[in-house]
């Protein structure tokens, strides 16, 4: 059986090699005509509707300012890492986050860009533009020289479309539509009459070896791809590629071709070796029309098509099967023989790999191969359930043989059910029913592992267990190998362990490890659940772990064997073989966000960031860039150091953010690295910053002094307030006493008037009766004066208030004020109000003054007085009239009535208020 690995075409098991970016992912257009990559690893896509930036995570669309056209025809990276953009209406330069239009190129459709001693731009307008800087200081200040000075015409009479530019042995050549290849010299163009001569040239390319390639239109699917070193002598390649639209040289002297209808072709040694189409990739390649082909820094091919961008990773896991028989595809072991050949043992057969071809050996067609080895003579030994066989199938020793090893000039086999047996004389040196692994540590020790009893070592005379490896007991040992630093590695059901200097260290835990191989500092371990696990030791962060499994393209997570094959890994699974080439290109890392007091721009990160007090924290977010590693596969390490270089904090995780907090004043730096899926580290990204020392608290000191002064003032104010409050209380008592004294004086005056004056008037009236003349008028006058004195006495000291109480006194007062009135008082209000006599007197005086005001000023026809006692035992008096409305705060009466009311209310600590009635008039309320 022969399987040529180079001839295997894409199948369903290799669809993971393909990917796509389309309108759905954020592209401004699905017509992608140009692709380029800047030194930071960012990819740029030129589309019919603008420029797109892809950093491995997201697509960002850019519309250059002052651009007259969004249709982009070509992209090129200059030596200074600036991005040159050729559009339908001129050229634009993108550098340091800024777009600059080259004004001299406006109204020209730029189809190709060539950086030589000068910069040349191909156009669709029949000329080549040579850019000449006007001054050394003006970066984008160019003037143009047209080559030729007059526009060239195509075969259709329209301006000739120039599609491509190249430097052929020091001469500038240009590909055109309808006039073949033109030479450029001394400001003029000339036609090159090559043999054969393609007229409709779409692409020119040159590889690192200065080999030139030409792609053109082809009639009837004829040959259209040419290789040359001398432009006069084009050499056809041996294929019918159809119309070739784009050419991209590879690293091995070959080239990738994008065609108009035949998909992607791969040439090597001028022979086609691969052809990928929409059909044979089942849509992995989204279109057979490919406008541009680009190979990035990691060897991933990016294709610009009329259905978006396609991504093809030729170095990702490539799956192969040895047969349609599942047992044959179940690969158990690999072995590299002394002659360099690779052998594969499967559940049903033994295969040999040579020159890219797998050959099945007929002697083992139906046999299960557990492991493979050699004797001292270099003769191949195959371990099977039926015994140890040589390459011819001859039985060397019977039994279920699991492993074989050479030690101290003899060959030993681990036979299940017996133990360790010397093959030459079939002497059993160790008895055990489940030996599973053998390894000879030179001539020093022979190590063997078992299924249940742990690990033993044999020095040529005695076999004994190794006490330091006691933890390995109770679980199967699958493989024992030697490391690069005189250490031993044990792979088993509990994981992968390293034994060094008498100490056992678990490197991979809780995994059933079946095989392990060490390549320099990289540890590759096969497992039954997690695929292929990769471990690498980092000085600062210890062991880093990543895995390669079915999600990344393996046919199964059950892997039994791994071996190095040149720069690749050959992986044996229960579903076939896998070729995997670990990345040799380290990822890149960029800062996507730095946030503290504000968000810092990328240009600011080149200098030290100064954090003002009291800011003592910072957030750094980074992103790893690698076209072969998806964002979620990156691991990030962060190291925080102070000014003395001391490590303050280390962090490793899949989280791309690092946020140290509560930092003391001083200078710091954060060193960030990104590890791709193959554990290659990026160059460190260093962000320096400083935390400011707290300034002398001038403000706080001043505030403290002011606070002290204010405290003194507050204490003084408190003392004064207490003194004033005490005085106010004394004044209130004095005022109250004065009011009481005034009332007493009123009562005394009333008594005097009543007792003395009225008595004198009565005596005078009686004496008038003795006069001879008529004293009727005189007597009436005396009676009138008496009545007025009685009224004054009643006003000075209302007898009704003393005799019958407040409610009747108020009703009497209301009755004597106005004819139409209404008086309402709660039945038990007299008992509930519980007011002192002097308070009742003041309420009476207030009501008297209010009624006098109503009578004098409001022209009221009706007055209602109401007395109520609230639930909280408050006395409430309301007087409602239907007179003219007024506002005591706006109307400033000339008299003292309202002032007296407020003064009396303050004396008894009562609340008073005037309001306008709902239906007119005024409402006075008193609450005590």
Would you mind describing this structure in some detail?
With 928 residues, the protein is of the alpha+beta class. Among the domains are: 588-691, Immunoglobulins (Immunoglobulin-like); 801-928, Heat Shock Protein 90, CATH 3.30.565. The chain is 16% helix and 41% strand. The chain is built from eight helices and 70 strands. Strands 1-34-33-32-31 form a five-stranded antiparallel sheet. A hairpin with a 3-residue loop joins strand 43 (435-441) and strand 44. Helix 2 runs antiparallel to helix 3 and helix 7 packs antiparallel against helix 8 (897-907). The longest helix has 71 residues, at 698-768. The radius of gyration is 54 Å and the shape is elongated. The chain starts with a strand and ends with a strand. Residues 1-12 have low confidence and may be disordered.
Any descriptors?
Heat Shock Protein 90, disordered N terminus, 928 residues, alpha+beta, 70 strands
Helix/strand/pairing class, anyone? alpha+beta
CATH architecture level-2 label of one domain: 2-Layer Sandwich
Mean pLDDT: 87
CATH class assignment of one domain: Alpha Beta
Gross morphology is elongated
DSSP strand tally? 70
Largest sheet: 5 strands, antiparallel
- Terminus-to-terminus distance: 117 Å
Please indicate the percent range of residues in DSSP E strands (runs of 2 or more).
Answer: 35-45%
Query: How many H/I helices?
Result: 8
Detail the topology: elements first, then pairings.
Layout: E1 2-4, E2 18-21, E3 32-37, E4 43-47, E5 50-54, E6 59-62, E7 72-77, E8 83-87, E9 90-95, E10 98-101, E11 110-115, E12 119-123, E13 128-133, E14 142-147, E15 162-168, E16 171-176, E17 181-185, E18 188-191, E19 201-206, E20 212-216, E21 225-228, E22 235-236, E23 244-249, E24 255-259, E25 264-268, E26 271-276, E27 290-295, E28 301-305, E29 308-312, E30 318-320, H1 326-329, E31 331-336, E32 342-346, E33 349-354, E34 357-361, E35 371-374, E36 380-384, E37 387-390, E38 395-397, E39 400-407, E40 410-416, E41 419-422, E42 427-431, E43 435-441, E44 445-450, E45 455-458, E46 463-465, E47 477-482, E48 488-492, E49 495-500, E50 503-509, E51 513-519, E52 522-527, E53 532-538, E54 542-548, E55 559-565, E56 568-573, E57 576-580, E58 588-595, E59 609-611, E60 619-625, E61 635-642, E62 647-653, E63 657-658, E64 666-675, E65 685-691, H2 698-768, H3 776-796, H4 799-804, H5 806-815, E66 821-825, H6 829-832, H7 837-858, E67 863-869, E68 875-881, H8 897-907, E69 911-916, E70 922-927
Parallel strand pairs: 59-65, 66-67
Antiparallel strand pairs: 1-34, 2-29, 3-4, 4-5, 5-6, 7-8, 8-9, 9-10, 11-12, 12-13, 13-14, 15-16, 16-17, 17-18, 19-20, 20-21, 21-22, 23-24, 24-25, 25-26, 27-28, 28-29, 30-57, 31-32, 32-33, 33-34, 35-36, 36-37, 37-38, 39-40, 40-41, 41-42, 43-44, 44-45, 45-46, 47-48, 48-49, 49-50, 51-52, 52-53, ...
